[in-house]
């Protein structure tokens, strides 16, 4: 099956949608993918996750972090069909238009499969882990099925990218407790909504987000693609996670220089 035409066809954003993203640093967009395309990628990504998954610890015995999801990275390197989705100009252009930059590079992709009975994904901000010089980063969160509230869809604290507190916290029980406590004394809207088939969300690196538990008997399957401004420069890592990300996702990149490595191609 070829999905090239659908994945390269532009998705036109309105000025209102770009303004909404700029204010809230997240947005949900309907009908980015059609049901046939989504089911195709559901099958190919699920197959690859099954092949590569090495988690053997029973769900009940895992940490809060490991109960949240199975995660596998840079599947575009593992499967040419998955690469079609990760390299989609349609989705990359949305990322570029929302951030109002001239183009985007790949930071990395990530499959996030929340198993049946899987726990919460604690409050966190992604960019805690990223050794990137600016906030021109964005993640496309692509559910591979209709995702009701009972499956644990992504939740957002709209506009919370301006909060400095909690940025030093790695994802886990502490980040869930401390960030939730901080958000409760703000006016930021807590957005919890289901995702329709083909609906995708985009969120910036510093906006706080979480997901509920998956209380169904089915796996919540999500593919994510993380984009950065194509001119993004590497910064001096400020924690171990950022040092690890530099070595893993931007190998060979130099501090203060544009992150132009074979793992970080320009996608739009």
TrEMBL record:
Cofactor: Fe(2+)
Protein name (database record): Phytanoyl-CoA dioxygenase family protein
Keywords: Dioxygenase, Oxidoreductase
Species, as recorded: Pelagihabitans pacificus
Entry's Gene Ontology molecular function annotations: 2-oxoglutarate-dependent dioxygenase activity; iron ion binding
Keyword Glycoprotein in record: no
Domain of life: Bacteria
């Amino acid at each position: 099956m070829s999905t090239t035409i659908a994945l390269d066809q532009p998705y036109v954003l309105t000025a209102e949608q770009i303004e909404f993203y700029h204010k809230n640093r997240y947005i949900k967009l309907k009908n980015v993918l059609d049901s046939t395309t989504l089911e195709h990628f559901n099958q190919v990504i699920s197959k690859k996750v099954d092949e590569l998954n090495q988690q053997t610890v029973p769900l009940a015995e895992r940490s809060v972090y490991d109960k949240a999801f199975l995660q596998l990275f840079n599947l575009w390197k593992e499967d040419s069909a998955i690469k079609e989705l990760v390299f989609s100009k349609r989705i990359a252009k949305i990322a570029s238009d929302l951030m109002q930059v001239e183009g985007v590079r790949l930071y990395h992709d990530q499959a996030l499969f929340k198993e049946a009975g899987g726990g919460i994904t604690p409050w966190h901000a992604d960019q805690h882990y990223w050794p990137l010089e600016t906030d021109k980063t964005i993640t496309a969160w692509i559910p591979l099925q209709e995702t009701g509230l009972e499956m644990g869809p992504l939740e957002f604290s709209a506009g919370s990218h301006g909060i400095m507190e909690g940025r030093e916290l790695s994802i886990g029980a502490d980040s869930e407790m401390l960030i939730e406590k901080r958000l409760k004394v703000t006016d930021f809207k807590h957005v919890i909504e289901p995702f329709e088939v083909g609906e995708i969300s985009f969120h910036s690196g510093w906006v706080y987000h979480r997901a509920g538990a998956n209380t169904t008997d089915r796996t919540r399957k999500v593919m994510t693609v993380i984009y950065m401004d194509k001119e993004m420069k590497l910064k001096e890592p400020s924690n171990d996670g950022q040092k690890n990300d530099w070595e893993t996702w931007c190998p060979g990149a130099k501090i203060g220089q544009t992150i132009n490595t074979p793992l970080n191609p320009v996608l739009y």
